[in-house]
Amino acid sequence: MTATPRRAALSFRARLTLQWTLAFGLLLAVTGLAIAAGARAFLRVDLDRKVRTLARTEAASATDGEHGVHLHDPPRGTLTDDELAPKFAQIFDDSGRLVLQSSELHSTGGLIPPQAIAAAFDGGMPLVTVLDGLRPVRVAVVRANALDRAYAVAVGLYTEENDRILRALERLLVFAWVAGVLATGALGYVLSSRALRPIAAITTRAARIAHGDFSVRLDPPQSDDEVGLMTRSLNDVLERLYASVAANRRFAADASHELRGPVTAMAGEIDVTLKHPRDAAVYRQALGLVRERLGLMVSIIEDLTVLVRAQEGGQELIIQEVPLGPLLLTAAGRLQALAAARRVTVDVGHIPEFTAYGEPRLLARVFDNVLTNAVQYNRDGGRVTVSARFDERDGDQPSLIVIAVCDTGSGIPVEEQERIFERFYRVDQSRARHTGGTGLGLAISREVLAAMRGSIAVASSGADGTCIELSVPGKAPRPT
C-alpha cells in the first residue's frame, strides 16, 4: 500500500496574505455591487422625475390651441440630433386609439399598454417601460383635455444614455476591484513579511536552542507591542531554562563526583584486601570501611530523593497543623551525641505554642539539617541557640513563624551566603569531608520550605557567628 504524498503546505505568510486578500476582495466586491445598485436606482428615480415633468409639459402644450390636440415637433438641426435626452410623444383619444405621435418614432402603432392608458384616464400618471424597436423607453402617461374631450398624452425618454452610463460605471468598478485586489495582495504580502520578520528571527534562534545552544537570546524588542511582549517573555523563559539546564548539569556533575568518591574508595579497599590472603580481622575491618562508604552513598541518594520530591512534588504535600515547640526540641535531642563530641551546647529557648502549617516529616528534616550545620560548622565548645517569633501579615499574605538558629562559628563570607543553599556546595571543604556532610542539607531545606510557601536565608553572619532564619506559615495561640 503506497502512501499518499502530502501536498506542500502554504507558509503562514502566504496564508495570511491570501486570507487578507480574499477578505478585502469580498468587501470590495460587496461595495462595488452596492455602488452599482445605488447608481442604477438613482438614475431610475432621476429618469422617472424627468419623464413626469416632460409628460406634464407636453400635455399642456398639446392642448393649448383652439383646434384640438397637436404636437410641437422640434426644429431640424442640432436640437433634433440632441443625444442627451431623446424623447417621443404619442396622444390617444378616450377610446384608446392613437391620434398623434412624434415623427422620430420607428413604430407606427401605439407603444403604450392599454391598462396604462386606462389608468391615465382614471386620473393617475402610470410609468411603464416599452421598446421602440430594440430601444428601451421609459414612458409616463398623463390625461389632458381639449375641446371638451379627454386625451391621454404619453411621453417617453430613451434609456440608452442611462444604460451606457451604468455599463461604464460597471466596467470602472470591475477594473477598480481587480486593481484593488492585486494591490491588496501585494501590500498584504509586504506588510505580513514585515510583521513576521521578528517571528523569523525567533524561529532561527529557536532552531539554535533546539540544537543545544541554550545561551541564545532574542534581540531586544523595538516596541512594546504584542511581538515585543512575546520577545520579553521568551527571553525570560530562556533565562530560566538556561539557569535550569546549567543547574542540572552542575547537579549531575556534582552528584557523579560525590558518588564517585565513595565508589572509588570502596573499589580500592576491596582490591587491596583481595590482593593477598588476609585473616578474618582484616577482612572485617575492610568490610567495615566498605559499609561506612555505603552508608555515605545511601545518605547522598536519600538526600537527592528528598530534593527531587521537594522540587517536583510540592503540590502533593499534605499540609497539616504541626506544633512547633515539640518538633524543635525533638530535633535538638537527636543532635545530643554530635553536639557532645564537639562540646557544643544546643539551647532551645522558650517557644510559644506556635502551630506551623507543613508536612511534619519534611519539617523535621529541615530542622535536622539546619541544626546539624550549626553544630558541625561551630567552634569547639561553642553554642547554638534556637528562638522563634510570630510575624503577622495583613491581607492575602499568610502569617509566618520565623525560627532563628544562631551559632558561634567563624561566619560565612558575604559572597558565599547565598551559595550555601546550592546543591553540593560547602564553605569549608576540609571540615565537610571530615564530618561526612553531603552538601545537600541546606538545598533540601530551601526547596522543602518553598514547597510549603516558606523560606530560608542567612539573617546575619560575622566573626561572632551566623544566624539562619527559617520562615514557615503558621499561627500563634489566641490570647486568653
Measured as a percent range, the helix fraction is: 40-55%
Helix and strand pattern: HEEHEEEHHHEHHEEHEEHHEE
Give me the number of helical elements.
10
Beta-strand content estimate: 15-25%
Give me the CATH fold name of the largest domain.
Heat Shock Protein 90
| Distance between the first and last residues' Cα | 84 Å
Shape: rod-shaped
What is the radius of gyration? 51 Å
* pLDDT averaged residue by residue: 80
Structural class category: alpha+beta
CATH architecture of the largest domain: 2-Layer Sandwich
Which CATH class of the largest domain applies here?
Alpha Beta
Number of strands: 12
Which superfamily, in CATH terms, is the homologous superfamily of the largest domain? Histidine kinase-like ATPase, C-terminal domain
Which residue ranges are poorly predicted, with pLDDT under 50 across at least 5 consecutive positions?
76-82, 430-434
Reported for the largest beta sheet, the result is: 7 strands, mixed
Total discrete domains: 3
